[in-house]
From TrEMBL:
The entry's keywords: Membrane, Transmembrane, Transmembrane helix
Domain of life the protein comes from: Bacteria
Ranges in a coiled coil: none
Protein name as annotated: Anion permease
InterPro entries documented for this protein: CitT-rel, SLC13A/DASS
Keyword Transcription found: no
Bilayer-crossing regions: 7-27, 33-50, 57-74, 94-117, 138-155, 193-214, 234-259, 288-304, 310-329, 341-361, 381-412, 424-443, 463-486
NCBIfam families linked to this entry: dass
Membrane topology: Multi-pass membrane protein
Entry's family note: Belongs to the SLC13A/DASS transporter (TC 2.A.47) family. DIT1 subfamily.
Length: 487
């Protein structure tokens, strides 16, 4: 009974929020439709946080409400007064526009790549291979975990599928080899360190590539629609690369120092991985084909930007995977994660665009810019990035955080004269992945890792705070100056 009441409360709460905001008088200078749209947008975010039904269903419903109530939510009086203006038709076009987003389809293509890793067994083979050759020392095994995740990241936009679905199932088999078990004193023998290394790996890999985490693409859409800044796949990668290389070297070692395992050397891990590889046998035709397609896609993404769009590369790879029988179409149709993400990102992109369409972003930017006069442009960038980053303590989803906070931060920055918007946009989106280390609930893999019981709560919060500060400090102190040099 209590569970049912809890679900009812979570279902009613977003509606109450929307109703209350509707009843509040429209702020001075804001177009009425902008305030009403904002009420729907906030209700959507509340619904995504509480999740009385799946988050994708929440965003889908929000778009539907805006399409149906278009005259009160999207268009101003001058547009509606035009006899040639068909509000219903224009609203429907607006509502479906997200499905034409190239970046959304890029993520979908990467999801099918992830399915290929799973179906062919290539993902597990890569993980076992790294463990075999780097598993004799606990420290190098930590580096192997990070490298595995980074190798899979360009083609696995769900960090939950990548770290939680591919890396975690392999690594969780290692601690018991050393009598290290969850939820007791033996967890610190080696299990705690290995689990924490997956937190490090997923946060780094999620920021290293556009396709490393689904919210990255949502962030790109926001900066494009709100700030008018377009960031390519290669520009993203090169912007984070200096910071990523430093963290790739430093983070595993520092974790080893701050959370040192009792077991520092091992032969069992390498032997176990070797046995598992022998059981898998030689590379199959499908695995070899997938490797070829991965190399082809990477080559086109890095060197073919002037000739072929990144999304077209992804769709080409998917088409070849289907034509060459690497992944059967029936597996694609059953891959709910890819289709769910396609709808979720498409609807969130539309809702974010609606903040601009309704006039809310312009009003908010003009209002905030008057209150931030006197701040230097660079100091403002630092403050905005830090506010966006550490606000993640309040969110249990990178997507919800990005959808809620990023449009607001971008609007503030856009409204202040002299702000280097391209730098601000890049710093903001690059911070989305690395903030996943802050809390046990910061991102999907974190929930899985924390739930397995090897890392105690106090250790997770302590390490998350330490590495969270290190990550954002390096992004601002190293990444930003190098970005400014390249500009």
């Amino acid at each position: 009974m209590s569970i049912a009441k809890d679900k009812i409360w979570k279902l009613i709460a977003p509606l109450l929020v929307m109703l209350v905001l509707f009843l509040i008088p429209v702020p001075d200078g804001m177009p009425p439709q902008a305030w009403h749209y904002f009420a729907v947008f906030v209700a959507m975010i509340v619904g995504m946080i509480l999740e009385p039904i799946p988050a994708t269903a929440i965003s889908f419903i929000a778009v539907t409400i805006c399409v149906i109530g278009n005259q009160f939510l999207l268009f101003d009086a001058s547009e509606l007064a035009n006899p040639d203006f068909d509000a219903s038709s224009q609203a429907l076009k607006w509502g479906l526009a997200g499905f034409s987003s190239t970046t959304v389809w890029l993520v979908f293509g990467a999801f099918i790549f992830a399915l290929g890793y799973e179906v062919t067994g290539l993902g597990r083979r890569i993980a076992l291979f790294m463990v075999k050759f780097m598993g004799k020392r606990t420290l190098t095994l930590g580096y192997a975990i990070v490298i595995i995740d980074i190798l899979l990241a360009p083609f696995t936009p769900s960090n939950t599928a990548r770290t939680g679905g591919t890396v975690f199932p392999v690594i969780k088999n290692l601690p018991p080899l050393f009598q290290s078990f969850p939820n007791d004193k033996s967890s610190r023998r080696i299990g705690g360190y290995l689990m924490w290394m997956m937190v490090i790996s997923t946060s780094l890999s999620s920021s290293m590539f556009v396709t490393g985490a689904a919210p990255n693409v949502l962030g790109l859409e926001f900066v494009s629609k709100i700030a008018g800044v377009n960031i390519s796949w290669l520009q993203w990668f090169l912007s984070f690369l200096p910071v990523g290389l430093i963290l790739l070297v430093v983070a595993p070692w520092l974790s080893y120092v701050l959370y040192k395992p009792e077991v520092t050397h091992s032969e069992e891990v390498s032997g176990w991985a070797g046995n598992a590889l022998r059981e898998m046998g030689a590379l199959t035709r499908k695995e070899k084909t997938l490797i070829g397609l991965v190399l082809l896609s990477l080559g086109l993404w890095v060197f073919g930007g002037d000739y072929i769009n990144a999304t077209a590369v992804g769709l080409l790879a998917v088409s070849l995977m289907l034509a060459l029988h690497v992944v059967p179409w029936k597996e694609v149709t059953k891959y709910t994660g890819a289709w769910n993400t396609l709808v979720n990102l498409s609807t969130l992109v539309v809702m974010a665009n609606g903040l601009t369409r309704s006039g809310f972003i312009k009003w908010f930017a003009d209002t905030m810019s008057t209150h931030l006069e006197g701040f230097s442009p660079n100091a403002t960038v630092v403050v905005l990035v830090l506010v966006f980053y550490f606000a993640h303590y309040l969110f249990a989803s990178l997507s919800a955080h990005t959808a809620t906070m990023l449009p607001v931060i971008l609007a503030i920055g856009k409204g202040i004269p002299g702000i280097p918007m391209e730098h601000l946009c890049i710093l903001l989106v690059l911070s989305i992945g690395i903030m996943g280390c802050l809390t046990p609930y910061a991102t999907g893999p974190g929930v899985i890792i924390y739930g397995c019981g090897y890392v105690k709560s106090k250790d997770y919060w302590r390490l998350g705070a330490i590495f969270g500060v290190i990550y954002i400090a390096l992004l601002l102190l190293v990444g930003w100056p190098i970005l400014a040099m390249w500009s």
